[in-house]
Amino acid sequence: MLMTSAAAGRGARNSTRYQIVLVALLSLNFGIVFFDRNSLNFLMPFVQPELHLTNTQIGNLASALSFTWAIAAFAMGGLSDALGKRKLPLVVATLLFSVCSFITGIAGTFGMLLAARLLMGVAEGGVMPISHALVAEEVDPKRRGLAQGIAQNFGSNLLGSFVAPVLLVLVAKAFGWRHAFYLAGLPGIFSALLLIWLIKEPAMAPKKAREKVVGPRYTMWDALKERNILICVLLAILLVGYLVTCWAFMPLYLDQVLHVSKETNGWLMGTLGISATIGSFAVADLSDRIGRRPVMIAAPFISILLPLGALYFGGTVWLLFPIFFIGWCVNGIFPLFMATVPSETVDARHAATVLGLCMGAGEILGGAGGPTIAGMAADSFGLIAPLWIMVGLAAVSGFIAMGLRETAPSQIRAG
Length: 415
Description:
By secondary structure, the chain is mostly helical.
């Protein structure tokens, strides 16, 4: 059943001011999550030679975090729904991933680095399903696409994809890569304090009352019977694979194949963050206006430009900046298939469960499987192989998105 309001049946919402504060703080918090998550990718040109890592091991490190991230997304989404709690799990997760960043900084072997990334995935995986559930419950559904786009994409890309590559590379060059990881762990502590201070625990019915309203237990298999949920899960698998493969191997491709300087490398990867930060407003708002489906079809096809541009690049390095900027527009639809469309498709009481399914499936199959396969391919065929894998993932995603049913309230009313 398509739901045009994620909060159907709820009473009066919190004030507009609180909704803005909530979305801004959730965006900041997830930005810090991605600052920590992406730090190893951007620092890999420093880490790889010191720890003598192979491309397969680099892929395994990216996959390990995605695997435990997925498990946590599955578990925390359902747990949050079952407990009727959002704030407490979010605060605990925020503190834990900061600790994991410090642990990464002291790693001296591949095994220790792997263990640190596994733990970080456990800590970070539940953050976004709970955050999106908060948005679905507290924000006016007319602005749901924009709000969830900002919550997932604005902070994560401004901090995790723009500030992180530029700042961490500078710190690593000046003080060493270990100090860069120590720096990455500090903001999470500050964010946890803000969550405690500013976020309200949503008023949810007691568990027994919720069970009477919801009826039989809603399972992930029930969710997958919904056409839109199945398509969103497939898109998550393919495009998270695209995303994580790019993060893991594009810095190495720029360093070892195109031989750009480490500073330019950081700025190029930072360009992806600028693109996605703008996309957190532009793409999400566009989907509110013209519909989710056309935006989710177009973006994957446009994203083919990024790997092809890098593969066939033959001019001045400055030409890569617009290629990276335009090609990364696909990041703008991540909140749509991970949160907005699922939350508009099922009853709001199942929101965290369904969001955990979409995010968890994307991470465990796309995020964990993609970099491992790409790393093995890179060891066998060179660093061009991961980029060709990105081309294939993007193309298939565009065709799959054609099967979506429209859920945008503006388009449903128009129809």
